[in-house]
Fold this protein.
Amino acid sequence: MATTTLIVPGLHGSEPEHWQSWWQQQDPQSLRVHQQDWHNADLLCWSQRVEAAIHAAYPQKVWLVAHSFGCLATIHAALKNPSLIAGVFLVAPADPDRFGIDHQLLSEMLPFPSLLIASANDPYLSLNKAMTWAQIWGSQTINLGLVGHINVASGFGAWPQGVRLFDYFKSQFSEQEIEDYWRLSA
C-alpha cells in the first residue's frame, strides 16, 4: 500500500528551522498542509485544509505529522476520513480549551494508529491533559520529559530522534493492520 506523509504545522506555520520543515526537506515526497491564515486558530477552517490535503493524496493513505494546533485540526479532519488515514503522529498538541473548542468535536477513539508525543512542561498543554486526550483517542504516548513545546524555541530544530520515533511508529503496523483499523471503524 502506497502512503503519503502530510506535515501539519501549528499556529504561525513551521519556520525553516522547525523540525517539521527539516523533515519535509529530508522526504521530498511529503507534503505540507498550508493554511489560509496561519495566525488565526480556527478549527473548522484549518481542518478543512487538512481534509482537502487528505483527499488530494487519494488513492494513497496518509500519515499525518502534526504539531500544536495542527494536531487538533488533524484529529478533526481525520475523524471524518478514517479510511484514508494510515496513522497520526501528534507532537505537543495544543489545549482545545485555550481556543474555546468544544470537546465533542475531538472526543472520539481514533480508528487508526496514533502516537502522541508530549512534554512534562509544555506551556500549551499540561501533561495531565495530554494523557487524558491520549486516552480518549486511544493513542500510544511518549513523554519526552522537561522539553517545552517541542519547537524551535525549546531547542528542537532538525530533531532526528523524532524521525526515528516516527519511522518506528510506522513500522509497527503492517499494511494489513492498517486496513483492519479502518475496516473496524466502518
